């Protein structure tokens, strides 16, 4: 008996071609479009709204002669993704709603709807791969980077579980984006030349401060410039890393308004993230200004001039124990163990070499090179080769 797959048809070219691949592989395929957001506050008007996505998804299903379904998951999306996002920004942290959307919606709430439709598997148009191996007579599902280095989306799936991987399929993970486009053009799919979606998953491209003001109040505060000449923390460990070294390496720079000068007014420190350039709106400098720190409690925004400002760079980060997630539980590190992995802390960042130190209070990740723009709330994902081993929310 043929297995049934429910493909998340988004109205984009990737999921469209993924649906065709599944059909060619002999699966029974149904398309399911999910609506996850209703409010248009802060949306940039140039973006297509969900009605356009729905129309294209329906056209693709008709072209491929597969059944088409619609589901509204806006309530779980609001509770499990957007409420978390607003709360994190309020705390002065930088969440990644796309990572949460995959864990909480696409491979959870969506999967529940897929089972109601009789689906054995769920599929998406992600550029990543899955591999099944056996370890001690137990099936293990490996999450691998997509073959297209320019489109690899494995980072966005760094929070999925073994159970979620067990019923997930990624039909275009072995393809490159140009190959996907060519297939869509050859099949004359309506989405063949459609632009890729941008911005927040299922919301779209937004003007973030306006979008966040749905829940977070604007509040004027001081912009303080910290000069390059300020003495920043130096990290000079000995031959072996002591506990003091680990703590020192992950501590954020301590910024003092007395060491800088007030150069402007912002509308809320919680609207900014470390490394941000846009939105500071202060001119007259030779090089651009970047956010090097935020103080939400006192509503102060710290900035520095230039890409090479030392306040932008740190040697390490820490993930709390309760925020560590192992996609490969069989590879979980024991307390006091250390290990080397490759790490990225944002989508498209080249993988960075780092040493991991598991301690009672959490994981210390110490990079070989200084890292720019480490921000609490972001997800750090660690890789062994092209396999995602685990991830965690950056605590500091």
What does this structure look like?
This protein is an alpha/beta fold. It folds into two domains: 209 residues, HUPs (Rossmann fold), CATH 3.40.50.620; 179 residues, Translation factors (Elongation Factor Tu (Ef-tu), domain 3, Beta Barrel), CATH 2.40.30.10. It is 23% helix and 30% strand. A hairpin with a 2-residue loop joins strand 16 and strand 17. Helix 1 packs across helix 6 and helix 3 runs antiparallel to helix 4. It is globular. It starts with a strand and ends with a strand.
Pattern of helices and strands: EHEHEHHEEEHEHHEHEEEEEEEEE
Number of domains: 2
Per DSSP, the total helix count is: 8
Radius of gyration over all CA atoms, rounded: 22 Å
**N-to-C terminal Cα separation, in Å?**
51 Å
Which spans have pLDDT < 50 for at least 5 consecutive residues? none
Give the biggest beta sheet.
6 strands, antiparallel, barrel
Strand fraction equals: 25-35%
* Total E-strand runs: 17
CATH architecture of the largest domain: 3-Layer(aba) Sandwich
Give the overall shape, derived from the CA principal axes. Answer: globular
Q: Classify the helix fraction into a percent range.
A: 10-25%
Please report the first level of CATH classification, the CATH class of the largest domain.
Alpha Beta
Q: On the 0-100 scale, what is the average pLDDT?
A: 90
CATH topology of the largest domain, which one? Rossmann fold
Class from secondary-structure proportions: alpha/beta
């Amino acid at each position: 008996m043929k297995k049934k797959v429910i493909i998340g048809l988004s109205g984009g070219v990737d999921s469209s071609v993924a649906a065709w691949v599944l059909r060619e592989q002999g699966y029974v395929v149904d398309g399911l479009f999910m609506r996850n957001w209703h409010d248009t506050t802060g949306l940039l008007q140039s973006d297509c709204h969900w009605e356009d996505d729905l129309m294209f998804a329906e056209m693709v299903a008709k072209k491929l002669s597969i059944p088409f379904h619609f589901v509204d998951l806006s309530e779980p999306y609001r509770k499990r993704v957007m409420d978390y996002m607003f709360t994190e920004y309020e705390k002065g942290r930088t969440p990644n709603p796309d990572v949460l959307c995959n864990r909480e919606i696409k491979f959870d709430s969506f999967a529940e709807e897929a089972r109601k439709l009789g689906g054995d598997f769920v599929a998406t148009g992600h550029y990543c791969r899955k591999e099944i191996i056996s370890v001690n007579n137990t099936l293990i599902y490996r999450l691998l980077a997509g073959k297209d280095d320019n489109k690899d989306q494995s980072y966005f799936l760094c929070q999925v579980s073994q159970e979620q991987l067990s019923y997930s399929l990624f039909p275009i993970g072995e393809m490159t984006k140009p190959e996907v486009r060519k297939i869509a053009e050859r099949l004359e799919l309506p989405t063949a030349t459609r632009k890729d979606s941008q911005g927040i998953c299922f919301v779209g491209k937004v003007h973030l401060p306006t979008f966040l003001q749905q829940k977070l109040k604007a509040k004027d505060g001081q912009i303080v410039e910290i000069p390059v000449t300020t003495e920043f923390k130096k990290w000079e460990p000995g031959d072996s890393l002591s506990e003091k070294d680990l703590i020192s390496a992950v501590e954020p720079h301590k910024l003092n308004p007395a060491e800088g000068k007030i150069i402007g007014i912002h509308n809320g420190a919680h609207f900014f993230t470390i490394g941000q350039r846009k939105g500071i709106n202060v001119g007259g400098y030779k090089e651009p200004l970047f956010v090097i720190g935020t103080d939400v409690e006192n509503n102060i925004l710290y900035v520095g001039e230039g890409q090479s400002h030392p306040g932008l760079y740190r040697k390490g980060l820490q993930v709390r124990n309760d925020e560590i997630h192992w996609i490969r539980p069989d590879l979980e590190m024991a307390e006091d163990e250390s290990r080397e992995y490759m790490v990225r802390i944002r989508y498209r960042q080249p993988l960075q070499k780092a040493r991991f130190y598991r301690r009672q209070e959490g994981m210390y990740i110490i990079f070989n090179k200084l890292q720019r723009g480490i921000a609490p709330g972001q997800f750090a994902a660690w890789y062994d080769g092209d396999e995602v081993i685990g991830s965690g929310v950056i605590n500091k």
